[in-house]
Structure formats: C-alpha cells, structure tokens
Amino acid sequence: MSNVLVFVEFNEGKPSKAGLQALGAAHTLAKQLGGSTTAIVIGEGEPGDLGKSGADKVIAVGGDAVAHYSPDGFARIVATHAEAVDANVVLASATPMGKDFMARGAAIAKCGLAADCTELAVADGKVRAIRPVYAGKALQTVEATGKLWATLRPNVFAEVSGNGSAAPERADAPFGAGDLKAVVQEIVAGVKGKLDVAESEIVVSGGRGLKDPDGEGKQNWNNLNALADVLGAATGASRAVVDAGWRPHGDQVGQTGKTVSPKLYIACGISGAIQHLAGMTGSKVIVAINKDENAPIFKVADYGIVGMVEDVVPALTTALKEALGS
Amino acid sequence: MDIIVCIRRAPTTDARIKPGADGKTYDQAGVNYDISEYDKFAIEAGITLKEKHGGTVTIVSMGPQAATKEIRTAIAMGCDAAHLLVDDAQHDSWSTAQALASKVKEMPHDVILFGWNSVDNQSSATGQMVAEILGLPSVSVVVGLEIADGKAGVERLAAKGNREKYSVNLPAVFTCQKGLNKPRSANMKGIMQAKKTQVPETPGNAPADGLTVVGLESPPPRAEGQIVGKGAEAVADLVRLLREEAKVI
Ligand SMILES: Cc1cc2nc3c(=O)[nH]c(=O)nc-3n(C[C@H](O)[C@H](O)[C@H](O)COP(=O)(O)OP(=O)(O)OC[C@H]3O[C@@H](n4cnc5c(N)ncnc54)[C@H](O)[C@@H]3O)c2cc1C
Ligand SMILES: Nc1ncnc2c1ncn2[C@@H]1O[C@H](COP(=O)(O)O)[C@@H](O)[C@H]1O
Fold this sequence. Notes:
The complex is a heterodimer.
Chain A: E1 3-7, E2 10-11, E3 14-15, H1 17-33, E4 37-42, E5 57-62, H2 71-84, E6 87-93, H3 96-108, E7 113-117, E8 119-123, E9 126-133, E10 138-144, E11 148-152, E12 168-172, E13 186-188, E14 202-206, H4 218-231, E15 234-237, H5 239-243, E16 264-268, H6 274-280, E17 285-290, H7 297-300, E18 303-306, H8 309-324
Parallel strand pairs in A: 1-4, 1-6, 4-5, 5-12, 6-11, 7-11, 14-15, 14-16, 16-17, 17-18
Antiparallel strand pairs in A: 2-3, 8-9, 9-10
Helix pairs in contact in A: 2-3, 4-8
Chain B: E1 2-6, E2 9-11, E3 33-35, H1 39-53, E4 56-63, H2 68-77, E5 81-86, H3 93-105, E6 111-115, H4 126-134, E7 138-148, E8 151-157, E9 163-169, E10 172-176, H5 188-196, E11 201-203, E12 211-217, E13 226-230, H6 235-245
Residues 6-8, 36, 38-39, 42, 61-63, 93, 96, 100, 114-115, 117-118, 121-127 of chain B line the site of adenosine monophosphate.
C-alpha cells in the first residue's frame, strides 16, 4: 500500500502553516505513489475542510483524553491510525510538537524516523527522504527499511490548494485521559507577539558588532528591532550575544541554536563563524552588514554592505519604509 | 536516586564535514570529537540532581572505543560510573534507542537524561524512543526540572517561546536543552577520579537500522554574492536588488 497519513498541527484553532505544508507534501507524495492522503487532526473542535489543502480523508480525534497535548497520547493515536489506513508513509511537520511525539510514534510502529526532512522523492517505487545532518554541513539521503516515518522542516514544502472536499470523520482516542504518562498541565506564554526565528519568513539577526544593549549598544538594538518591525521579521542572534546575556536563548541561530531557512536573512554585526553559518545558509537570500570586508559572512551573503551597523541599519529601515509604503 | 545520562560522541561543531569514499558516511580524517553539545546539559542536570537528592550518575554511551575519552570527560565533571556499548558503525536513532534501552533496562534508573538533539545525526528522537520502548513518560526539550516526592515538575520549551509545564511520575526520560543549566567544567579532583574509574565495555549489538543511508552529499554551494557598496549610501541599491532581482520584499 502507498497511502500517506499526515498529522496536521493546529494553532489557535486554525491549521498552522507548517501543518498545511506537511499536508501539501503528503498529497504530492501520495499522488506519485498512487495512494491516498489521510490528514489527522487531534484535539481540535472544528478542523474545517482540509480537502481543499490536499486531504482525501480527514480524521478528527476529540474528547477529554486529547484536551491537552501529550507526547505518548499523540504518538499512540497517530500510530493507531497509521495502521488503520495502511499508511506506508507517516508525516508531520518538524515543529517542537512534531519532533517530540513522532519519535515515540515511530518507536510504537518499530520504525526509524527521518527527522527534519527538506525533500521527499520517489525512486524505483521507494520513498527517499533528504535531511540536513551535521548542522546542514551535509545532506543525507535515506530510505526506510519498513514504513517511513518522517518530520518535515517548516517553510520548505509547498501547500496545495484545490477544490477537493473531505468532511472530517470523528474518532475517539484509543485511551482515557487517566492512561497518559505525560500531559501538558499549563502553558506559560512566551513574549507576546514575538515571532519565532525558526518559523518566520524574514529574520534580522544581530551579533557582537551591535555591542552591549545595556551600554553603548542600546541604540543599535533598538535600530535592529525597528528594522525587524518594518519587515515583519523575527529577530535572531549569534551565540556570542546570547552567551553574553544580551538576547534570549530562543533567538540563537546556528548549529547549537535554531536552524532557519527564511526567504530573507539579514545578518548585522555577525562575523559568520562556521557554527553560525550552519544554522542559516539554508536561507533563500542572505544580506550581511559588517564593517570588516573580510568577514566570513560575506562568503555566503548574496548581498553585502561594508559599513557600520550604526549607520547602515537605520538607513535601511528608512529606505524600506519608503519602498514598502509603510 | 539512580540517574542515567546517555551521551554521544560527536564531531566538534567547528569540524568540516566532507562525504567519505563510500558516499554514505563522512570522511573522518582530521575530525575532532567532543561530547555532543546538548548532552553537556544532561550531564549537568544529572550531577545537580545527585547533589540535591543523593544517589549516583551513570553514563551510558554507544560508540567506538575512542568514546572513552568523552566518557572520562563526563566523569571528570562529576559523574560516578559509566558503561560503553562498543559499536564502530553509525546507526540511526531507532537502532541506537533499542541498544541503549536494552542496557538501561537492566540498570536501576529513576531519571534517564538525554540531549534534546545530537549535533551530528540531529534526529531529536533517541530519548523519546527509549522512553517508548521502556514504557516510560518522556518530556523533551526540557529547560526546567525539579524533583520531589517521586514526581518531576518539568518545563519544556515549545513553539513561540511558550513553556509547557508537566508533572510526571518517575522513572522518566527527559531530553535537555540549553537554558536548563550551565554545564560545569571538570576540576582537578574530577580529572584524577576520571583517570582511575574503570569504564566497562560490552558489544553494542545494535539492532538493524530503521533507515538505510543511500547517500551523503555536501550541500550545493551558494551562488557567488556581491558587495553592494559601502556605508549608508548603499542601502538604496540594496533595497532595489531585494525587490527587483531577489524578489523577496
Ligand atoms: C560548541 C560551539 C557551538 C556554537 N554554536 C553557535 C551557534 O549555534 N550560533 C552562533 O552564532 N555561534 C555559535 N558558536 C560561536 C561561534 O563560534 C562564534 O563565536 C560566534 O558566532 C560569534 O558571534 P558574532 O559573530 O556575533 O561575534 P564576533 O565573531 O565577535 O563578530 C562580530 C562581528 O561584528 C563586526 N562588527 C563589529 N563592530 C561593528 C560595527 N559597528 N558595525 C558593523 N559590524 C561590526 C565585526 O567585524 C565582526 O565580524 C558556537 C561555538 C562553539 C564552540
Ligand atoms: N550513540 C549514542 N550513545 C548514547 N546516547 C546517544 C547516542 N546517540 C544519541 N544519544 C542520545 O540521544 C540524544 C538525541 O540524539 P538524536 O536523536 O540523534 O538527536 C543525544 O543528545 C544523546 O543524549
């Protein structure tokens, strides 16, 4: 069988972008394999019509047992339905949630997990997944020995939109709320309205060249935030500034921070150490602003400006405001 | 409290990774190794728990014999004992998890700690898989951990910087993320201790992988870029290029 089951993650009652991208990838793959696409939604009241986004069939699992996220619970549900629809491929987006429970799900199914894939292809009737390893310093191509469980990197796969329709079939969780091993009890919200670097289409990052925000660098970081605001971008940072306590951990881009692949990445006052490059060279377009024309960041930048962040960043914000009419 | 920390020997983060002659694994020439970065947070978490609640911290690692170097570093930081599952091959997370689970199962364990992600294989999966195999609760990407009365209060970093709070019964598996603690460095006493500590070895007997690697390639090089200009005067050209050439704004 060549059916594909895909978990579609929701966010505030709506399918998330990453979830729809995973559904798009599932649809494209199922077509190549001559199978069908089943979307599974867990714990959402009204999943809407995912038929328009590529699902042939939608399963909506509800009830008390899934009122809150649980890694073991979500894993069991997805593994159970994967078997029920005879799925040869099981997909989810490689978000914090997908990465968490898909590993348990694959273990239930006694399968490997191809994590954070950036490409899926069919060769000789077998599905091949490509995934960055060693922080993107190499690309690994894998095939499953049995069924393929995989998570897909957000912002890489395309959504599909069509005029299909699939009314959700309701299902209950195959366990009660009391059977779960770990359940979210409370969510402490991150900074309100803050975009996540890993999920944003544009990222503006600052490095040590911006200097101490509690000292002479105060204006530089304000300027960086203003640039991010004009572009609707998330702010990122190098490890040097995170370790200095200038920016939060969650902002760190790089091998031991977040891997980002936005359409535009603007590096300000960042030298371009190998560990930083590892996290951002998957970006579509890279801009670098650095006073040192020999900084390694210019080797990967599509466009570079040699100059002081003090001057260039505010000038860029002004020029963009004009160009974007905002 | 019996604490187990699973650590992985991995190429240092500044290593240049080139595909090897087999086209499937990387060329190990000139590559240096270290404890995979996030496993250091797991080691620190284990030692902190021991200091607070008493007990022992035991390292379990699967890898080549050379991994005794990384294991000794962990002992020098303050871990008590270790076990090496000797296996020279590179395995996927499913195979690794099964091998680790078989070893951990026969050891006393209240808390089993992992890194949230290995810097080389990057599956973010091994810890959760071990938990599933052993039928234990797991919380991944942990940035807060307190233990009292046989239960763990855990904070996990989720999307958008949100923190999910869990309370789970022990034994349990936690995978550790930066922010949980600051890994200590080894002191002289620890280094002496590490020299004396025996590291028992048994064959890894890693079961078959769930994934077959069919190729490893360097990513395509980025197209040559351009320096648009110098200083603030260059921004007009940059904005034009971003709009008209790159079409990203
Ligand atoms: C195990 C390990 C893991 C690591 N993981 C990561 C990671 O995930 N992410 C990461 O980023 N790093 C990581 N690093 C750190 C990395 O090696 C570098 O130290 C770090 O990226 C440097 O940060 P930076 O570019 O901000 O600072 P620097 O290297 O100090 O560069 C500052 C740059 O700013 C420029 N500059 C200075 N003043 C100005 C000005 N006024 N205007 C314009 N430009 C200016 C300078 O020319 C310089 O190029 C890791 C290191 C190790 C050992
Ligand atoms: N060979 C190994 N030996 C011991 N622990 C490992 C091994 N491989 C992975 N781990 C643990 O599993 C974590 C996650 O690895 P991964 O699933 O590859 O991202 C690592 O941070 C380690 O704690």
